[in-house]
Records
---
Amino acid sequence: MSGITLSRYLVEQQRNNPAITPDLRLIVESVASACKAIGVAIGKGELAGVLGGAGSENIQGEAQKKLDVISNDILIRTKQANGTLAAMASEEMDEIYLIPTEYPQGDYLLLFDPLDGSSNIDVNISVGTIFSVLKKADDNEVTVTDFLQPGTAQVCAGYAVYGPSTQMVLTFGQGVDCFTLDRELGEFILTQRQMRIPEDTKEFAINMSNQRFWESPVQRYIEELLMGSTGPREKDFNMRWVASMVADVHRILTRGGVFMYPVDSKTREQGGKLRLLYEANPMSMLIEQAGGASTTGRERIMALEPQKLHQRVPVVLGSKNEVERVTRYHNE
Ligand code: AHG
Ligand code: MN
Ligand code: MN
């Protein structure tokens, strides 16, 4: 183990990468402390009465879990006072959240999915927090338009995964590094530098129950995988689907694979299932920074010009050669 704490790592990164300003460093440190607090709440589970529904819906018409709301509140509370942000946006808030005027204002915008995979929370399966940092374009008062920047404009992206251990995975655009929470010390410790995704894989992740709704390129691709060594791919594939994007992406960053949440006839009207700004973009930046690829099936996700705060997109990401194949099938 490196013994390098997240704080020490950030100070070192700041020295070597001029894009990491003191404010950006502080943003990541305080996101990490919010994630520790979220991890504690999740860890108490039934003992603290935090499982189950909150009895409300978010703007996407999804029932909110108590922990969706708790995690969102923790992020807002931790982040609003430190003078680095101009505004925040979250899956769980209809509108953007401007930093109240009693607090000092900064230049950055923070976007997050406070609790990803929340359908898994009541059954004690890994969940996570996804975040993305943008810089606002000018000195005018922030509006939602400031948030509608392509993924290529992200200055930092990352997630925390609350699994058997709590880990935090980060990129500032110079590779992807992974930290593990030392619960005794209460510190994230650097445990892996420069994660790399193998270009080829034998593992795929897709919700097979949607099969009858898929478009034909997805049908063809999955059919070929299922034929295994007796089909055109001439090798057997294995399937994993955690249904927490964070956990599925973490597996792919760790050992490769392809993850797909394609658009289908059920989700065509809304554009897909996953959200562009606080799910697909940060995950795409991490995947690309680790040598993988990420597309909608047709175009690179990071190049999309967002139109709406809660916009949804189809997602195909992971091992480069598989993502390129799926994208080729769509464009043929
Ligand atoms: P969230 O819990 O933030 O709404 O996200 C859930 C997402 C994602 O984590 C996962 O990949 C997908 O929804 C699971 O969808 P299915 O239930 O259709 O498998
Ligand atoms: Mn999510
Ligand atoms: Mn969520």
Note: Residues 68, 91, 113, 115-116, 118 surround manganese (II) ion (ligand 3) (CB under 6 Å).
---
Amino acid sequence: MLEQEARERIIVALDCDRTRALELAGKLSGHATWLKVGMTLFYAEGPDIVREFRKLGFKVFLDLKFHDIPHQVRGAARSAALAGADLLSVHGLGSGAMLAACREGAEEAAEQLGARPKLVAITVLTSMDQEALAQIGIDAPVAEEAARLASLAKVNGIDGIVCSPQEAHAMRQLLGEDALIVTPGVRPAGATLGDQSRVATPAAALEAGASHLVIGRPITSADDPVEAYEAIVSELVPLAL
Ligand code: C5P
């Protein structure tokens, strides 16, 4: 794939404080295309951090995993889109009506912005196993539940899902070639696993069907984050995708 296409597929997760996030953004400017802002950074800094990253030229995945009544989620999606996010996450478990409201909120913002952010659904959190599902009254196997929620998201106007690289292949088959499939748990060969257990290399995750890779610490904790980022780009360029 072309080098620019490889950069388009990598989302750098900045799970740190504002000072460090801006330092990393400054270093990665001109190299990385996407940054991910999660709850840790967003609840400390609010929508301004999204605007700052946008001003630096990045696309932003605002990963707040909306889950509330449809009215609230519609407003959340609208507000997040107006802050400048290019990609938003929402929980599939919140019902079809809530997922549809998320899409509506994004479209309302698009009336002002001209374009709406893309939307991805969380199916079953990868931190949950069969026992955790049983605790909340779900007896279906994890894979079956994840597939059900992915389909629910699709029919309600959500553009894709977040899943582990291990599930990417099945999800690609289920959702079709246009779906966004965003995978965390990506570790370049030889990288420290941290608290991730079910991991894949960047190349393996894309070959399994991921459209985007969320990669945090292998880049942000590296002695040279730009070098770490560029090594991943170099791993992806030879792929014939
Ligand atoms: O540092 P690391 O590469 O593990 O960061 C992965 C990012 O993806 C973090 O922001 C984490 O919250 C997120 N994530 C994850 N596993 C999921 C969903 C999201 O690691 N199942």
Note: Residues 96-113 form the longest helix (18 residues).
